[in-house]
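Dear Dr. H.,

I hope your travels went smoothly. While you were away I took the liberty of generating a structure for the chain from your last submission, since the lab meeting agenda had it listed for discussion. I wanted you to have the full record in hand beforehand rather than looking at slides cold. The sequence, exactly as received, is reproduced here:
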Amino acid sequence: MLRQLLALFTIISAALTSAAGNPVFVDHSRPDNFLDIDIHALAGGSYITENYMSCYPEISDLNAGMGPAFGIGAGVRFNIRSFLGLGTELNFTRNTEKMDMAVVGGNRHSVSNVFQRNTYYKFDVPVYMTFMFNLSSTVKWNVDTGLYYSYGTGGTQNNNIYDTRANELGQLIMSVSNFKADFYNDSKGFINSYNRSDMGLHLATGLTFGGHLRIGARVHIGFSNIANSTGIVKPTCHTLDFLGSIGWQF
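The corresponding predicted structure, in token form, is as follows:
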């Protein structure tokens, strides 16, 4: 019953919109252009999920935060129908991520505070189906769903570690150390480094004004465990990116 009501609502809405002189909301006709090309800029935030506290009981507290991300890219869309297309892009992004944790020693007389700041670069290639709807004669709304593959090109893991312990006299002694490692595939990474390859879900939506100006938002949800660990304990890490986009369609 619900399906029939939705179908009836779509038919009535399309008829009213057409009668008002505007294009139908879902246009099944052949597209004017088979190929659309665009360039765009990206900005938003990147985040890496982890399960460190469940893997390492020594970690008493952990806070991870999203860092700013920026990028540029180009896309191409093959229009199958006016409402349906197949799209792909090539994007290059600079991403950051931060994490703070407290690690308690086995005798409870020493505490380490770790402040980690990561910067990493990657290419990503989403492939998706795009569904386009006419909001007016000059504004189109698109909804995209598909998959992406990304490959990391470089980056750094920067760790500042503050060690505090109590000596035999009960005095607190603190030492500070700093070390860096490559973000990708480096055995010297704190707990773990990260694999270069990643893939996951691509979801996006946006508006196109006048057939040229495009504004949108997207999310990438990583399926792959990108933690590169050489120890006995194997943590899991996944990427999560939220990006806004602005571009020009030719």
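Two observations you may find useful: The chain has two helices and eleven strands. The mean pLDDT is 88.

With kind regards,
E. W.
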